[in-house]
Structure formats: C-alpha cells, structure tokens
Amino acid sequence: MGFVMVFIVTAWFGNPLPVLGFDQSPVQPIAFPHTAHAGSEPLVNTDGSPKLDADGNQLTGIGVDCTFCHRTVTSMNAAGIPPVETCVTCHRVIGATDSEPLTLLRTIGLGEDPGPIQWKRVHRLPDHVRFVHEPHIRFLTAAGNTDVIANRDEAAILAGTQMDGSVVASVTCSTCHGDIKAQEQVAQVEPLKMGQCVDCHRKHDAPTDCATCHF
To answer: How far is CA 196 from the centre of its chain?
Structure first.
C-alpha cells in the first residue's frame, strides 16, 4: 500500500516512478545523442573521459539548430520528426564506420526500403488534451518575452536574441522540454501537468477556458 501511495503521489504532482512501463527516458531503437547534434560543448564518454576522434582530437557538439530537424515546430501542431533520409544525408559520409548505431542507421537509410525509424515517444499528453506548438513558440520568441523562457541560462538567451529583440525558436524549447542539448538520452524533465499549464496561461493572460486545451 505504501508503494502504491508513493506512486500515486509522485504521478499526481510530477513524473511517475519509472516502473510498470512509466519511463521518462526510454531507450530509442537508435541512439541519438542531442549532446553531439544540438550541443556545442566537449563530448565525453560514459566513464567521463574525453571523447576523441581517430586522430586523438577532442570532439565537440556541432550545435545544429533544433528547427533543422523539428521543422514544423514554428508553424504546426507537432514539432515533427525528421525522416531517416535527413539523418543519412550527413551520416552517409560522416561518423565512424564501426559505430553500431550509425551502421544500423545506414542500413535502414540506404536500404531498398528505407525507414521509418520507430522512435519511442518521450513527451506524451492525454488523448483529450490538444497542444499546438506554433502559438507557444510564437509567444516565447516574441520581443520582450525572454523572461518567460525557462531552463536556459541568460548567456544562451542573449546569444539567440535577434536585432528586433525576438529570439530564435531553438532557445525556447527548454521551457517545456528542459535543456535537451545537454541530454545524451532525452528524458522528460517537466511534469507537464494541467496545473503547470494553467498557471502559465494565467500568469501571461492566455485563455484558460476548457475548449482551449481540451477536445
């Protein structure tokens, strides 16, 4: 009974315990480290040692903008998942030939019947909840709203600020998804509960009637 109560309480106020299939960081069919793709910091191995290339040079993340892969995040409901062809465009020639994840990616992407890769969803809302990325990104990127952006340091926000005071979309993702670019394996870090959404809407004078978010 104690375990059941702890599970219910944690699930109600935050993320449930990672048991019975409730895992906020599922293992993907192909490892995709956002640290290497979206990050720009020096890369490290699982034991903490520097990750080096074949010539012994320190590897760093390449800092790809989030919208390069998630291309519909600024204009549609969903952020979008890139087709395998997008991945293979680079990894046809980039990356170690003996890398197991890249070998699997190339097999899928360069085969006679490419993809799709069956990625496992990390962030999931109930089926009766409607969440549209476009208006949220539009609000977060607008000039004067940088104080709303969460889970991002001031230097990163300043670096993403444009001449008119607005910020690029990739700076705002952390507000709901955490600092994805620092995650080797993506995990849900925000509870994304109704109370969190309603509090944010009330704070910023967004509509809070039921039909706004519920079917």
So the answer is: 18
What does pTM read for this prediction? 0.84
HEC states along the chain?
CHHHHHHHHHHHHCCCCCCCCCCCCCCCCCCCCHHHHCCCCECECCCCCECECCCCCECECCCCCHHHHCCCCCCCCCCCCCCHHHHHHHHCCCCCCCCHHHHHHHHHHCCCCCCCCCCCCCCCCCCCECCCHHHHHHHHHCCCCHHHCCCCCHHHHHHCECCCCCECHHHHCHHHHCCHHHCCCCCCCCCCCHHHHHHHHHHCCCCCCHHHHEC
Evaluate whether 186 touches 165 at the Cβ level (below 8 Å).
no
Instruction: List the chain domain ranges.
Output: 133-213
Q: How confident is the model at residue 131 (pLDDT cuts 50, 70, 90)?
A: very high
